[in-house]
Amino acid sequence: MSQKELQKEIASIDSALQKSASPWLKRYTDYANYNLISKEIQTRQDEILRIDASDIATINERRHILETLEHQLDLLKGSKSDPFKDLIQKPEIGEIPVISNPFAIFNGISFIKTMQSSKSSFESNKTSLENLLSLIGRKYTLLIELEKVDKSPALAQEVAATQAQLLEFQGAYNIISTSMDIYTKRYDEVYTQIYGAIKAQAQKLGYIALAILLSIGFALFLKIIVRRYITDNERTYTANKIINFFNITIIILILLFSYLENVTYLVAVLGFASAGLAIAMKDLFMSVLGWFVIVIGGSVHVGDRVRVQKDGSIYVGDVLDISMLRITIYEDVTLTSFKENRRAGRIIFIPNNYVFTMMIANYTHGGMQTVWDGIDFCITFDSNHAKAAQIATDITIKYAKGYTQITKKQLRKMRDRYSLRNANVEPRTYSFIAPNGIVISVWYQTNAYATLTLRSQISLEIMQAILKEPDIFIAYDTTKFVQTPHDGFANKPYTPPLNYAESDNTNRSNP
Questions:
Q1: pLDDT tens digits along 365-402
Q2: Beta carbons of 343 and 315 less than 8 angstroms apart
């Protein structure tokens, strides 16, 4: 190769090195500049010592140059020694995450991605150094060839500088190669460990999902069987509630026993905590216990009409739902609404623990669909009370006959469960003496869900029938003037007592 060709190729390599923007070359340049400036500072300091003390201008000039050099040196102090420290140092892997549940899988994947990014950056540094060594090595070879024909001091100095540069980069390459081998082995070990843990958790999650799906499928199968073989809607609803409860309980137990490493520890903790929880959350636990009593005992079912009294307020309505904590009822228009509340249509929530502390009346328990209802009206003392009672009885029998038959059938079914001594459900009529007249009270069986309808019909029918009778009078608050000889009590003739007549005549004879 000719001298010009060698110089041309060396210039081409220098141009490539300038355009490469390699962090290695930049760090080495800063390192070389630091050493160069340090030597320059030492030279300037020696010059100042040799200058005559009387030459103030020269001394000030040298000191100014020295201050500039010291400022430049301060900017490059990071390159004072070991310029490739952060480039050749292997990345820290850090604490390996423990993959013990499905959520930790995401932590493991994120950790693997972080390691891959660090490894890629480390490999990029090594590749960049390899390319740089290739160029500098080629340049050094060309300079040696050129030195054979060119013995200039400048070329010899460049050869020495290139050789020093090559030795620095070669040493850094040896270190980074060793670090890369160590890091790769550690990376493969950690990657295998985390990947195996993620795979194990994924398999475990699959088994758990399969167990949960089997539990749900079995619950759906039981619900289909219930709907097919149980025709009573209330029993179907209750059975579905029980199936859902046990299904959720099984799923919770599957999850607990799958991800709790020490179940005995959990049982011990729950044992100690249960006492405090029982006191702090007494109403909650009592509501859950009340739910068991309601569901197992069967005292209240969905669709039943119930009556609840709390703090002087009375609520009558139909049960919409029975959850683990409360009974939900819909307040209907009833006699209670008419006399007490004067409003209806509200959704009432009754805590289940009320079954232990207050009375809940069930109008439709045990398949009963009817209840006793009564109508009272008052007639005057001079009315034909026997006829009035008979009229009320006949009208009541006429309208309540169907409900009476239904009640008899229902009571016959209940004899297997309860001791029913008085099963007479025929309409009953009673008469009582009151301050303003005679009260006729008639009682009959009616639909538990529509008591006001039949009550209204019978009331109007009795009133219309009584108004047609000339010897029956409805008693109500009136004022009546009574003249002798009648006292107004049933229009009976009045005969005053003998002593009263004598006293009256005596009083009249005296002026």
A1: 877 889 999 999 999 988 999 999 999 999 999 999 99
A2: no
Task: Report residue 140 as tokens.
Answer: 């050094």
Q: Which helix (H) or strand (E) holds 334?
A: none
Q: pLDDT tens digits for 26-67?
A: 777 777 777 777 887 788 777 777 776 777 777 777 777 777
> Domain boundary residue among 81, 106, 130?
81
Residue 467, domain CATH: 3.30.70.100
Host domain of residue 394 = 370-477
Integer Cα distance of 422 and 405 in angstroms = 16
Q: Do residues 290 and 329 share a domain?
A: yes
How many angstroms separate the Cα of 506 from the Cα of each of 35, 385, 388, 495? 155, 41, 46, 18
Q: Residue 375's beta-bridge partner residues?
A: 442
Specify the CATH number for the domain of residue 303: 2.30.30.520
Inter-CA distances, 16 with 106, 160, 204, 373, Å? 44, 20, 56, 108
Return all residues near 329 (Cβ < 8 A) that are at least 6 apart. Answer: 306, 308, 315, 317, 318, 319, 320, 347, 348, 350
For residues 167 and 165, what is the distance between their CA atoms, to the nearest angstrom? Answer: 5
